[in-house]
Write a structure and sequence with these properties.
301 residues, alpha/beta, Rossmann fold
């Protein structure tokens, strides 16, 4: 039985508050530049990732459907380039949901491996990884079985999408954690739908990310996370998964819809539980690159 890793210190702070950066991405913009600008405004990748660090890059390949249900390949390659430019030894790791798996078929259909081969990046299928039993101080979970690769990594970088969700209320960086728990715990995770959003933060008690990006160029406002697209056309970056998820939800909530987001952020289960466990803060500083939300909503990428 292993213990949780030492809590990750968020190095991206300003006057005691976590930073969240929002950078617009318009049609025709070069996405690697947008991602690099977000990281630079935040304070630089070098503040959290050192040359030679073994970095697990955790995307979202839960299913074989397009963004915002899966990580966009250009966004994935942009973050890989950024990390490699700073000397990181990058490995991409994920496991897919039971409904759309197995992972190797999802990854094949999304054409992930040819992209990774071009960058010399290995892929770890968590389903085939060595599993470690880890104890955690959760209310719903006292232990989890987690993959050795992500547990033992030097650093962890998350790349998420942001959308509504019919049981978790929303899906963003915190919910990436479902991708590293095994099938036994995923079954318990979904047993009682009203508790799903409160259980998600507990999955993050074993470790926390060093850096988080959210691709909010395109998403949906439906409860299911499917349906007609909206185009916020922004990229977010932070060292605090609670703060970055909060900003993502503020953006989505600005597009009124019949979903589960029409309550204050602090009343949403993911935020309530995560802040109670000290996993992040809803009190953050937002740094915005040139552009404004009204303009962004009218654009398309």
């Amino acid at each position: 039985m292993v213990k949780p890793r030492e809590r990750t210190k968020n190095v991206y702070m300003q006057e005691g508050k976590p930073l969240v950066v929002k950078v617009p991405h318009f049609n025709g913009d070069y996405l690697p530049e947008t991602v690099a600008q977000a990281a630079e405004m935040l304070g630089g990748v070098e503040k959290s990732i050192k040359p030679g660090d073994k970095v697990i890059l955790k995307p979202n390949f839960n299913c074989r459907f397009a963004m915002p249900l899966s990580t966009h390949l250009t966004f994935l390659s942009s973050v890989i380039e950024l990390l490699q430019d700073h000397g990181a030894k990058v490995t991409v790791a994920e496991s897919s949901g039971k409904a759309d798996g197995p992972t190797e078929e999802v990854v094949r259909d999304l054409k992930i491996l040819p992209l990774l081969e071009r960058y010399g990046v290995a892929f770890v299928d968590f389903e085939k990884d060595q599993w470690l039993e880890m104890e955690i101080p959760g209310k719903h979970f006292k232990k989890l079985r987690v993959p050795k690769s992500i547990y033992e990594a030097d650093k962890r970088v998350y790349i998420a999408n942001a959308r509504g969700h019919n049981s978790a209320r929303f899906s963003a960086s915190q919910k990436l954690s479902v991708g590293w728990i095994d099938s036994e715990y995923r079954g318990f995770f979904h047993e009682e739908r009203s508790l799903v959003e409160y259980k998600i933060p507990e999955l993050n008690l074993g470790w926390q990310p060093d850096l988080v990006f959210i691709d909010a160029r395109r998403t949906t406002i439906s409860q299911s996370g499917r349906g007609a697209y909206i185009y916020p056309n922004v990229v977010l970056a932070s060292g605090d998964m609670v703060a970055i998820d909060a900003e993502a939800m503020k953006i989505i909530k600005s597009f009124p819809a019949d979903n589960l987001l029409d309550i204050p952020l602090e009343e949403m289960g993911q935020f309530a539980a995560a802040t109670a466990y000290g996993l992040g803060s809803l009190d953050y500083t937002l740094l915005e690159a040139e552009g404004n939300l009204e303009t962004l909503q009218k654009s398309r990428f």
